[in-house]
Write a structure and sequence with these properties.
This protein is mostly helical and 186 residues long. The chain is built from 10 helices and no strands. Helices cover 59% and strands 0% of the residues.
């Protein structure tokens, strides 16, 4: 049974429903923030926790998560034609210009190739992660692409720097996903 969260749940409710790790839950409750909107704006949140929060169900849109995954994967050297094809096919897929089958074919070719580093292949492979409906795996694609990109030694920067850049891009894409918007008056 799926529990539907409020748009701006309490910190404790969010941590409980999404099974936050002990350290994350302790930090979150110690901040004194009551809602996830407040917590998202908190400056001392670890970058990996912010990415974890953003990739929980119903926090960010599928499009935002896929664009974030694509951005993360393209921060790494993309070696060879298969990796480039997955990036292009993913972008086409997001725009509705190729099918799930075409994208999955490009991903399979990349997985079977030995192009690029292990991390770069899997970050790009993760970007094109689709299933029959497409949405469920957008969260997985974003989280995996961010993780592989941050941990790729060949990327030329350390994981902490990579995560900081990823969070800056994530915030640029989604702002505060818990912020309540006021409907425009007619």
């Amino acid at each position: 049974m799926r529990i539907q969260l409020a748009k701006n749940p309490s910190v404790l409710e969010f941590c409980t429903i999404h099974h936050a790790c002990r350290d994350g839950r302790s930090w979150a409750t110690a901040t004194g923030c009551q809602t996830m909107q407040e917590l998202w704006a908190h400056k001392t949140m670890k970058p990996e926790w912010r990415i974890w929060i953003a990739t929980r169900e119903d926090v960010c849109s599928e499009m935002d998560l896929r664009l974030f995954a694509l951005w993360c994967a393209t921060r790494m050297p993309i070696a060879g034609e298969y990796g480039k094809k997955v990036v292009i096919m993913t972008l086409r897929w997001l725009l509705g210009k190729c099918t799930d089958v075409e994208l999955m074919g490009a991903r399979k070719a990349l997985a079977d190739s030995l192009e690029g580093t292990y991390a770069s292949r899997w970050a790009i492979y993760s970007v094109g992660w689709v299933d029959a409906g497409g949405y469920v795996s957008a969260r997985v694609a974003a989280f995996d692409a961010a993780t592989y990109a941050a941990n790729d030694a060949a990327s030329g920067y350390d994981p902490n720097s990579a995560r900081t850049k990823q969070v800056a891009q994530l915030i640029k894409l989604v702002g505060n996903p818990f912020k309540q918007t006021n409907p425009k008056k007619a």
